[in-house]
Amino acid sequence: MEHLTGTRIRREATPATVNLRRCKLVIIKGAQRGTEFVIAGDVIRIGKAPENDLALVDETVSRVHFEIMRDAKGYLVRDLKSTNGTFLDGAEVKEAYLRAGSIIGVGATELKFTPFEERIEILPSEKEALGEMVGKSAAMREIFGLVERIAPTDATVLIEGETGTGKDMIARTLHQLSPRADKPFIVVDCGAVAGTLIESELFGHEKGAFTGAHTARQGAFELASGGTVFLDELGELSLDLQPKLLRVLEQRELRRVGGQKTIKVDLRVIAATRKDLRSEVEKGKFREDLYFRLNVVPITAPPLRERREDIPLLINAMLAKLAPENATALSDSTRAALMAHDWPGNVRELRNVIERALALGADPGMLVAPLGAASEPTKGVALAGGLEFEPGVSFRDTKEKWNELFERRYLTWLIKRADGNISKAARDADMDRKYLHKLLRKYGITGGDDEPEN
Hints:
Radius of gyration: 27 Å
Helix content: 25-40%
Distance between the termini: 35 Å
Largest sheet: 7 strands, antiparallel
Number of strands: 21
Shape: elongated
Oligomer: single chain
């Protein structure tokens, strides 16, 4: 069973490391004596039927005799209603946790369970692009190195980071570089689907399960079987659905809404969130056991303001894709303006600015802080006075002055429009909530949020 831990990537000179936790079964008695089997999934089933993960040549063993499942406490062996029973160190068990050196007896076969751990250094990649991702900063090259290492595995990945940092690109790259690349990649935005429909979206439903369910429907987990499910904004998933998601992660099986049949699924799960799930666990808003199951390999996507050296590469990549004939048409002053901006919306905001500039035939450097009038205060914010420039003041200093004026006016308008609710204002602005808090403190603007900042 493969498990990677250790793990937010450290932004240090020393290489990041992960602990690759594995375990193996060695047949020590029976027809296949000496055979070793490394467990490479979250749940494996053992029996004499060929469809098992480990098929035993033993007529005294049931077709699907027992399974081994990894959970928050360790490795659990569970008898699957076998004819002759499952024995752990000589005692018959229905389910029990394994220890290093435990002997599992089934029929005329005995298997020895051995866990082991391998510490692996994750060196920064030498590439400046990987999949859909672009960057030459140390932070991004370390992420490239980790993605290259874990993509071939089925390890569950939790991607955290502010809104717009490219968490979806990391997920897609993990899928594209995996053995599942030719299978489905199904995305579910847990924050965009209505609460009453998210269960059906994930698990599917049977005909007549609820009003409007005129036909049976497969959910994301069934549709992705063989491939990858990407659960975006997982922090928005309600507490009542979290145990059902945990069951899919631990046992790779589900039941549709309104259904009784258990459906097996073979998939990899990648989750992303802009929330700090550890903090959500402490608040009682997210299950600790689900967090543990998801947090096998954590990756933190850095905000764009912390990797400014990647901005020129990102601009060139976006221009090459959106307007290849004008890929190098931006002036030095425009590029300087884009480098100087704080990008609260991160890579997504940069892409939107480039796209808007191309559509309008405008200079993208003038769109990072749109200074202009608007007729309705609910639709825009006007800055009083015209643009007046001072001789002898540098471009950067002049831009900083007008950026501060823009930010102060925009934030005042934004908070007023959201009736003081900072969470709503952050969603409206497509901005990370903590970063919005930081800007509000900078300008002394207050808001009456519904929950404290972490």
